[in-house]
Amino acid sequence: MLSLPIRHAGSLATFLVAAMMLSCGSRKQATTTPTPTPGPSPSAAPTFAHVLLLLEENHSYSDVIGNSAMPYLNGLAQQYGLAAQYYANAHPSLPNYFMLTVGVTETNSDSFSGVVSDDNVVRELVKAGKSWKCYAEALPSPGYLGGDAGSYLRHHNPFTYFSDVQNDPTQAANIVPFSQFATDLANNALPQYSFIVPDMMDDAHTGTLAQADSWLQENIAPLISNANFQSSGLLIIVFDESETTDTAYGGGHIPAVIVSSQAKKGYVSQTLFQHQSTLRLTLAASGVNSFPGAAVSAPSMAEFFTGQ
Fold this sequence. Notes:
Layout: H1 11-23, E1 50-56, H2 61-64, H3 71-79, E2 81-87, H4 93-101, H5 121-127, E3 132-136, H6 163-166, H7 169-172, E4 175-177, H8 179-186, E5 193-197, H9 209-225, H10 227-232, E6 233-239, E7 253-259, E8 267-269, E9 273-274, H11 275-284
Parallel strand pairs: 1-5, 1-6, 2-8, 2-9, 3-4, 3-5
Antiparallel strand pairs: 2-7, 6-7
């Protein structure tokens, strides 16, 4: 595994060139678990008017970082923050989505159809008086809580399992087709917290990395250039899990990119992070100080921001 300096802004450009060369060769995953820097004690992250979490699918860090098939995402990683030692919690997908929103994996199966009554991101946001939406591409209709439909996969949408959503039509109405995202962005109507779910062709689950990258450029570039986002916005782009052959820390080595005008430029972190740290960050950055599940004690990601 390549070793990156922690605070050298110019180091990522050199690393990406090397990683791109490696990406042309074997992608076989290491069978040993690396030992990155332990996480620091939880500390405060800045707060933002809009926090957005976008999920991609089923590719390793080495698949993505430095890969010429994903120039847009690599450009964001080079310009903003990159978590170089970020690991998913499990295989397959759904337990990782739950860790990102519940702080508990809940299941080891994508076929899970139960109801999750544990504390979760929706409960904490509502309790704090914060707005939220899940923007899911190919969702059949607003408030849809049913199963797979075309290129929409339910197990990529953890909100549909929450008792808080299933038992409250007002909360269920916050699950909307992704087509609503552009409208909300144009009308300055994005909620405090957004969870963005491309469909299985556009999130690299079934489609190619190049297709996923094109989707990001088309749909996320307008967000990043938006004046409100530039003023007080945070976007986290993370993959749910690595390939199943990579079981380091449960779900393998994956990339996570932190995008914000308040993010340190070209920052590469060597701290060990997993999805519970992202859950903690999305809530803390939304002004919520109560965290569900493993997020309570998860390492803070505050190091990515200026002033930290």
